Amino acid sequence: MKYMLMRKADADTENGVMPTDDLLQAMADYNERMTQAGVFTGGDGLWPTREGCRIQFRNGEPTVINGPFEQTSELLAGYSVLEVDSFEDAIAWAKQWPKEDADGNVTLELRRYFTLEDFAPSPALEKHRSQEQLPREMNVHVAFGGNCREAMEFYAEVTAGTLEAVITYGETPAAEDVPKEMHDRVIHSSLNIRGRRLMGADMSGDGYQAPQGTQIHLEYDDTEQAERVFQALSEGGAEIMPFEQTFWAHRFGMAKDRFGVQWMISSGLEQCQ
Question: Residue 164: which of 184, 137, 189 has the closest Cα?
Answer without folding.
Answer: 189
